[in-house]
């Protein structure tokens, strides 16, 4: 099926890139799911794969974490993730705000699509522009960074760019930074999945997409394979052109979701 090919290919490629670049697995995987499923379902499904891949990475690098930094950053992030995920469930239940015809098809602009689409475009621009890409914050702002990263992680699954911007100046060496970032991501994923589980999954995810559990399992395996291959085969890849191409693609997809075309 087309959705299996697209979602698993994205999971395979992006999980490899995520090991040594600024790309986040959820940032690209969620739009891939959104091509075939409702946006809230896409966010929840992506969260499952994101958590599984981060747990895999945490086994490898989690012991190098700085636990004081994890406490200062990830605990506020988890609390904010609850709020963001709860807001997502509220948006998901709202009726379309506008509809329009394009050719012979009627497209509806839902509030959740408008919000998530705008966030995707915003984070893509954040990652593309050198000025924003190099943005960092003082260590005393770690709790604030956790709140912002966790909230947007819960609302949209987009959290990696903000997390890196705040943790990069926390006085950590390379190994501690990777470990701390991974453990923090696991904590946020677990928090938001708890809310998603009480809403989307318990509320009928299987009825919306009966094949979703199998697709999630397949994409998780693809993400594991991408991480394994990326660590061994892709360390010398030059990412400048890739970052631009991916950023432009995200802007197009985000605009399509916001306008009801996707």
List the helices and strands and how they pair.
Elements: H1 2-18, H2 25-34, H3 39-61, H4 67-92, E1 98-102, E2 105-109, H5 111-128, H6 130-133, H7 142-156, H8 160-167, H9 174-201, H10 205-208, H11 212-233, H12 240-258
Antiparallel strand pairs: 1-2
Helix pairs in contact: 1-2, 1-11, 2-3, 2-12, 3-9, 3-11, 4-7, 4-9, 5-12, 7-8, 8-9
Describe the protein:
This protein has twelve helices and two strands. It is mostly helical and 262 residues long. The protein has one domain (2-258). A two-stranded antiparallel sheet has the order 1-2. A hairpin with a 2-residue loop joins strand 1 and strand 2.
Beta-strand content bin: under 5%
What is the helix tally? 12
Low-confidence stretches: none
Radius of gyration: 18 Å
Count of individual domains: 1
What percent of residues adopt helix (DSSP H or I)?
A: over 70%
Strand and helix order: HHHHEEHHHHHHHH
Average of pLDDT: 78
What is the oligomer described by this structure?
Answer: single chain
Using DSSP, what is the number of strands? Answer: 2
> What would the principal axes of the Cα set say about the shape?
globular
Give a short account of the largest sheet.
Answer: 2 strands, antiparallel
- Straight-line N-to-C gap: 18 Å
Q: Structural class, please?
A: mainly alpha
Can you give keywords for this protein?
262 residues, mainly alpha, two-stranded antiparallel sheet, 2 strands, 74% helix
